[in-house]
Design a protein that fits this description.
Blueprint: H1 2-29, E1 31-36, H2 38-44, E2 51-53, E3 56-58, H3 67-80, E4 84-89, H4 96-99, E5 104-108, E6 112-113, H5 115-126, E7 130-134, E8 140-141, H6 157-160, H7 171-174, E9 176-190, H8 197-206, E10 212-226, E11 233-240, E12 243-244, E13 256-263, E14 266-271, E15 299-300, H9 302-317, E16 337-341, E17 347-351
Helix pairs in contact: 8-9
Length: 352
């Protein structure tokens, strides 16, 4: 009986090692890019006064924590997990050809982009690329980078005049509309979704049914809402908090803290909170602000965050052979006509 037990144990261990080796080999064969955005890094540390612009209130821009540290955490985390990662830079976002050599690209707090870069990323995903958008991706227009002493007018809302199109030409990739930026205090992020492969694989590896990420102080989070019949599936939720800056908008377990999205032939994971603040990377590197790669002392859930990010990348990078067509439900109404002079000096008419 003992011989049979030992034989089964050895066989099980062999199968486990084989499975792990296969998974690690697949990760190593995929080419992953982590974006290091010079303008996003610079923007984090700039300060600008508040004021009024075209009747809208512009809040002062304060000094944020280092964006470079988040990018470096992403790079080192995936390197430690066995992925074949490379640093890619802002100039690479100007070329669809440059982006297309990667199975997936990680955008860690890449808030600054221009119109052409957003278009290239959209086409990259549509053509089959994977992407992780970790907090406020493409929210600001880099061609409007604020000058010293001037108000910060770079958020895209000043270009498109509607939060529905918060990400400009990249909006359709998100399959969602922007709701608001909200401050939460003493918050918890959990998964109520147990069906999606990212959650199934993460909870299986962790040996528990629920991921648990906690923040004991206040932090800004990004609230979005999937379109009707959207492919954006919430996989993590803002499940609990003691304080919300806009309680009339925020409701527990209603808004996703992370979404899995299918667009064209590609896949995307959008994350609406600062997940890299929860992650500890014990590596000597050129960290800024003496952070040294440690997780914030007010956060809990380092291992859960790491395993979630691992399986989020696996899901976006895998060759799934799928294709999700773009869907539009558009209605046009006209109850009048108005004329105006176009830039060329010719009269044109538009329905009102």
């Amino acid at each position: 009986m003992k011989k049979i037990f030992v034989s089964l144990l050895v066989t099980g261990a062999f199968l486990l090692i084989t499975a792990l080796s296969s998974s690690q080999a697949e990760a190593a064969s995929q080419k992953i890019g982590v974006v290091f955005s010079e303008s996003s890094e610079k923007y984090a540390n700039t300060t600008h006064p508040g004021g009024t612009y075209l009747g809208q209130t512009v809040t002062p821009k304060v000094d944020y924590s280092s964006t470079y540290n988040k990018e470096l955490k992403a790079f080192l985390l995936y390197q430690q997990q066995g992925f074949n990662v490379e640093k890619i830079y802002e100039k690479d976002l100007n070329s669809l050809e440059a982006l297309s050599q990667y199975d997936a690209i990680v955008f860690a707090y890449t808030v600054m982009m221009n119109h052409q870069q957003r278009e290239n990323i959209k086409m990259y995903v549509r053509n089959g690329g994977g992407a992780i958008f970790a907090f406020q991706t493409a929210r600001n227009e880099s061609t409007k980078f604020p000058k010293a002493g001037q108000m910060d007018l770079s958020p895209l809302i000043y270009d498109v005049d509607s939060w529905v199109m918060e990400w400009d030409n990249l909006t359709e990739v998100f399959n969602a509309r922007f709701i608001d930026d909200i401050v939460l205090g003493n918050s918890t992020v959990n998964n109520t979704n147990t069906v999606h492969p990212i959650i199934q694989n993460a909870t299986k590896e962790l040996g528990k049914s629920k991921l648990n990420l906690t923040k004991s102080d206040q932090e800004w989070v990004e609230i979005i809402k999937p379109w009707q019949d959207s492919t954006a599936t919430p996989i993590l939720y803002f499940s609990n908090y003691d304080y919300a800056s806009k309680p009339q908008t925020m409701k527990k377990n209603e808004f996703g803290a992370a979404h899995a999205i299918e667009y064209g032939k590609g896949r995307v994971v959008q994350i609406g909170f600062k997940i890299f603040d929860y992650i500890n990377i014990d590596v000597k590197a050129d960290w800024q602000d003496n952070e040294n790669g440690v997780a914030y002392t007010t956060t809990g859930g380092d291992k859960d965050a790491k395993i979630f990010m691992k399986h989020a990348l696996n899901w976006t990078a895998e060759d799934h052979k799928g294709h999700t067509p773009r869907r539009y439900n558009l209605s046009l109404y006209s109850d009048g006509v108005q004329s105006y002079v176009s830039p060329s000096g010719q009269f044109a008419s538009i329905p009102q």
